[in-house]
Design brief:
Layout (H helix, E strand, L loop, with lengths): L1 H22 L9 H9 L2 H18 L7 H29 L5 H11 L7 H23 L4 H9 L2 H5 L4 H7 L4 H15 L6 H26 L47 H24 L1 H6 L1 H8 L1 H15 L12 H20 L4 H9 L8
Helix pairs in contact: 1-3, 1-12, 1-14, 1-15, 1-16, 3-10, 3-12, 4-5, 5-10, 6-10, 6-12, 11-12, 14-16
């Protein structure tokens, strides 16, 4: 259980990181340690979230050994049902909060991951590496001919775009979490799930790999692109969640590199090869670090129970913070926000709620609904 508790802790940290991006002060309004916390949260929290989503898929499909036969078909059906529900839920939320909602993208990720569920850790790692190396350049090429008129023509025939700000083109290529580049994170998480994270030797190798990916990618980007290579899009005063042209939660449109030279940068949400590799490295370090801490420090594990509880109901915690923001009239990504108090209150509130709820129920509210909705998969033959 220590292994899974560590993953739950990492998932909670990802949720809190997204709270920081959506509710916390703009990067330009921070200083000292706060600047580092804000910078690390921007982009890296959503990447960690996506990586852990890939991990979660393997919990359904068979973590160390893939389910086959009838069990395998039922597992795929459960994932497919989850994908459709998340796509629908993401579309509904995007009508109110814009393209910053990641759930609809999750639904697409899950569908694309279905053919990969039987693969080994090594094969999945190779696929993740290949996607990281190829898809940013492919996205750049595909985005180049997409003028505003072409996008409007495509969107005019897109039923999802008529319902919300996130259409099929956004989900696949131009959105804030485009499937074409973000599948690298999901597949990397699937590969991690195939490993025995409780084994000390595996932990050491992964820690070394994570550090090498992080240092190597960011150092190479700095060398090739200069001192602004790691610049966050939040440094201009906006969080990555926001856009002046949309609602307070932002349209979440993906700013593709305008020139080939920008493909050498590695800033949060830049979607480049260096950004993907470095962000995966950070995600690996967080997951391994959380696992080691929970395995080797039982007292810390007891103290962290409320935070771990948030990780067990991350869907509820994620959706809930948008709903509470709306009720309280708190906007995301405001450059005038300078206080850390709101985000700290959200983190405390989520931890208290999760701790109390988990004392009575096994799953979070939305997790119960999602689990119940996948029950028909057992009738697959």
């Amino acid at each position: 259980m220590g292994r899974l508790v560590g993953v739950d802790l990492a998932r909670a940290l990802a949720v809190f990181g997204m709270y920081i991006v959506h509710i916390g002060p703009a990067l330009s309004a921070t200083s000292g340690v706060g600047t580092w916390v804000r910078y690390l949260a921007d982009g890296h929290s959503s990447v960690l979230f996506a990586t852990l989503a890939g991990f979660s898929l393997m919990l359904i499909a068979g973590r160390r050994e893939p389910k086959t036969g009838l069990a395998g078909r039922q597992a795929k059906a459960r994932i497919a049902i989850r994908a459709v529900i998340l796509l629908a839920l993401g579309t509904v939320l995007a009508t109110e909060y814009g393209g910053v909602i990641i759930l609809g993208f999750y639904g697409v990720y899950f569908l694309f991951a279905l053919p990969l569920l039987q693969l080994s850790a090594r094969t999945l790692a190779v696929i993740a590496a290949g996607l990281a190396l190829v898809t940013p350049q492919l996205a750049f090429v595909l985005n180049s001919p997409l003028s505003e008129s072409v996008r409007q023509t495509i969107d005019a025939y897109d039923p999802l775009k008529k319902l919300s700000e996130v259409g099929v083109l956004d989900l696949l290529l131009t959105g804030f979490y485009p499937t074409i580049t973000w599948m690298s994170f999901v597949v990397a998480g699937m590969a991690l799930a195939r490993l025995d994270l409780s084994a000390v030797a595996v932990q050491r190798r992964l820690a070394t790999l994570g550090a090498a990916l992080t240092v190597g990618a960011y150092s190479m980007s700095l060398l090739l692109a200069g001192k602004d290579a790691l610049r966050s899009r939040a440094e201009g005063g906006k969080s990555s969640a926001g856009s002046e042209e949309a609602s307070s939660f932002g349209s979440g449109s993906f700013e593709t590199p305008q020139s080939a030279s920008e493909l050498l940068s590695a800033g949060p949400h830049s979607g480049t090869t260096f950004d993907i590799i470095g962000s995966v490295g950070v995600a690996i370090l967080v997951i391994v670090g959380a696992t080691v801490l929970m395995d080797r420090l039982p007292r810390l594990r007891r103290l962290a129970k409320p935070v771990i509880a948030v990780g067990t109901m991350s869907l509820t915690a994620y959706v809930g913070h948008f709903l509470v923001q709306s009720m309280l009239g708190i906007s995301a990504g405001e450059s005038t926000q300078v206080s850390w108090a709101p985000v700290l209150m959200f983190i405390l509130g989520a931890s208290v709620f999760a701790a109390l709820w988990s004392r009575i129920f096994r799953r979070g509210p939305l997790e119960y609904v999602l689990n119940a909705a996948t029950k028909p998969a057992k009738y697959v033959r």
